[in-house]
Amino acid sequence: MSPEPADRQEYNITAYTENQVGLLNRIAIIFSRRKINIESLNVSPSEIEGIHRFNIVIVETEEVVEKLAKQIEKQVEVLKVYFNTNADVIWQEMALYKVPTDVIAEKVLVERLLRENGARAVVIRKDYTVFETTGHREETDNLIKALQPYGLIEFVRSARIAIIKASDGFHHKLREFERREPSEEVAENEFLNDREQVFTM
Amino acid sequence: MFQNQPSAQPTASSAAPALAPTTGAVATLQALVAEGVDTIFGYPGGAIIPIYDALYDFKEQLNHVLVRHEQGGIHAAQGYARSSGRVGVALATSGPGATNLVTGLADALIDSTPVVCITGQVFAHLLGTDAFQETDIINITTPVTKWNYQVTRAEEIPEALAKAFYIARSGRPGPVLVDITKNAQMQTFDAPEYQPCQHIRSYRPAPVVRRKYVEQAAALINSAKRPFILWGQGVVLGGAEAEFKAFVEKSGIPAAWTILGVGALATGHPLNVGMLGMHGNYGPNVLTNECDVLIAIGMRFDDRVTGRLDKYAKQAQVIHLDIDPTEIDKNVKTTMPVWGDCKETLPLLTALVERRAHPEWLARFNDHMAQEVEAVIREELFPTSEELTMGEVMQQLNEITRGEAIIVSDVGQHQMVACRYAQFNHARSNVTSGGLGTMGFALPAAIGAKFGAPDRPVVAVIGDGGFQMTIQELGTIMQTGVDVKIIILNNQFLGMVRQWQELFHQRRYSFVDIQSPDFVAVAAGYRIAGQRVAARADLRPALEKMLAHSGSFLLEVMVTKENNIFPMVPQGCSVAEIRLR
């Protein structure tokens, strides 16, 4: 039986990886073999050349997320994995909304709509206009509600991207890895000194 | 782009200088030689012909064993790795050749066996076109490999293979697959001198040992009244048998084993209290739920060992030594994790534990063993009925081999009997499919085990069901002349399934009644000597004849049809609820 909803919440898994063909599949099957749905997945370059950053959002218990994080970090091409609750990260999603320009122009106080929703027009054509907002889910949902009466043609929302509030970033840690290379003794996790706060390994 | 002229390649004897023009195929074999490979198990096919062509010139350095099926090839490579401690190597072609490796890869992954598989692949320009014998073997094998990689250019080969061997053997070992497109095998390039891999930026084979945790673990052990050691294959994989023995003997703690850990401490050692798990010994299972400190060393709390997790050792403080951080807290919550290779952590722990004995506690294990002897073991090893038992075959074998043989067992009742009753004086002596439970494993694995340890006697113990899953590997024995003794314990059933049907499905024996050929005649067809035994008086002489025979020998022993393996922890029960009957 799945745990009570109270034990489950959104977790943001951040993985720093090599840029390697097939790694996405290797990471994805860690979730699929346990029949865990990925709510959101974003892969992008990080601030370090050649190192990619996965942002994965799932709804699970902390115990399960910790095990998943270990499994991901165990993959050969994965350098480091963190996991955090929403309270521990700054996160954003981006949304695009396509609406008929004539309707918008005739019936909507566009300026007010944009201001209220923190949106901006990305493209304005004769046949349609595309607006864009960024924010949390409920924020980007607001503009859907506002635009639906005016014939919203198309809507798309991006995966979540998240920055960990407490972290110094991974750059320093990676530089440390590289500085010691090629020593076989390279290993880290200062967090192991405090088991209660261990979030990986 | 590439030269389609494999015949123009340099031979092995002329190869090796820095930046020598070399084909991908030759570079592949040079890499194997540089990694110390002496034996390859394989089967040729269209997409790997260039490597086989090059192999023609490497006969002096690389002994290629032509198996009869790729599954046999990888199981043989596993047997080689398990008996020798080195990396096993399997070669296969693309498509069906590659997919036939999947079972062995899954087996090797769950049993932490270092294997490198090299598969041929269609030309790079054909990838994704459903070309003849094309399969996406990288994606197929992703869940069952520690690492895999597709090579599409010859230049990638040396580095890919260097990484493959490093990953396969380091840290927690495992299987690796390198898929090489045919053009990459044929292409000529300026090969640099082969550099073994020593380090990968994103790969941490072993975590740093945290001395603080070792100290806390030692304090916990020193305060324990009823400490209990469980050990697994990690001790063997770390080559830490001596360190483990020193720890057990100084701490005086009773120790029990998983089936892949057996042999790290001799079966007859006074502190070796037996086998864990579903068909393990009575005492270790019952007393798991009575110990106050549980010290797990290089084992992963498999469900066959723990039974019902919510009733497993709840009273105990758990110390877990493991090289793989993902095993810590995976199934059993740990009080004190000791990350690292036990070759490194055990001496640290031994130095800090007090020299003690636990006579009363140890006596409880012995009391339970006495009960088990009374209820199960005596009748199994020294039966009063006329029919032969599997246990007495192992008992007779023990007396003749004196625990010096490598026993390779397949999967089923006979496997549990072999693990329970075989005597093991050395590590790397019990080769069996532990985690995956692969029927058909033993015959090819025994072939590989003999190549890996040519100076040791290898005895394969196989059921009549499992034997027929890879029976074709008798052909490999015939062709190579490898000396493997085969004992078929024939109960004319798929015995373990039948046991479950008897105990849990109201004796509805659904499709477990298996007919077999005349195994001795089949062996004779492969020019392998054999004998069939059904009477007790014939057993001992036949075993002696088999072991004295020069070359392979097949001994079919007809055993009791409906014998059950006890003790048993029924599925869904606590280990303390183990049944003697």
TrEMBL record, chain A:
It is an enzyme of class 2 (transferase). Pathway: Amino-acid biosynthesis; L-valine biosynthesis; L-valine from pyruvate: step 1/4; Amino-acid biosynthesis; L-isoleucine biosynthesis; L-isoleucine from 2-oxobutanoate: step 1/4. Belongs to the acetolactate synthase small subunit family. The keyword Amino-acid biosynthesis applies. It comes from Hymenobacter coccineus. PANTHER family: ACETOLACTATE SYNTHASE SMALL SUBUNIT, ACETOLACTATE SYNTHASE SMALL SUBUNIT 1, CHLOROPLASTIC. The keyword Amino-acid biosynthesis applies. It catalyses: 2 pyruvate + H(+) = (2S)-2-acetolactate + CO2. This is acetolactate synthase. NCBIfam families: acolac_sm.
